[in-house]
Fold:
Amino acid sequence: MLVHPWDAPHDDAEWRQWLAVHDFGQLAVNGLPGEPPHVQPLHFVYDAGRGEHGEVVTHLARPNPLWPALEADPEVLLSVVDDYVFVPGPWQAEPDGPAEHGTPTSFYAAVQLRCTARIVDDPAEKAGLLNRQVGHFQPEGGSALAAVGEEPYGRMLAGIRGLRLEVTGVRAKFKYAGHRPREVQDRIVAGLAARGGPRDAAAREHQLRRRGTWRAVR
Structure:
């Protein structure tokens, strides 16, 4: 992923705060020789407090076809993208140029976590991972804890494999016209507010929060 200086996060706190409320992504696993990569959509839990860059935990069904590839190469990439919008060309036109010369583009926030995967097959450890995930996604409770040999979930543990992903590197990007002139940014902010489409409000918040960042660091 290309990250221009004006799209880079201010600091680690920026991407960590964003990732804390974005817990669905795509896990990319290198395919076996001659095969394309596996790309698996999944929910996950990110724990910033484990290791230098944090840890991700998740699980997948045992029949999932990616397991042989993951066992052959545990180096994986977890990609998370959201707050994306299309920006019409006229919104991006230079202040002294014709509107039809503006360049259409996309805005988005993205975090890519490079990880080393460890497969978890121990039933008790799998139960612990499941309970961590349910505690994150369902903090209000209402479901029984997973425990080996106990109903209702103990008998289901054999049908899944857990994953612990040690994060070894991070690339983050907040592409929101941080290098554009103030007049152009004002026009984009106004356009997003007026359009009011899906994710427009989130994109507008990013742009307002990050405006001036590039000028400040040059």
The radius of gyration is 21 Å. The CA atoms of residues 178 and 213 lie 7 Å apart.
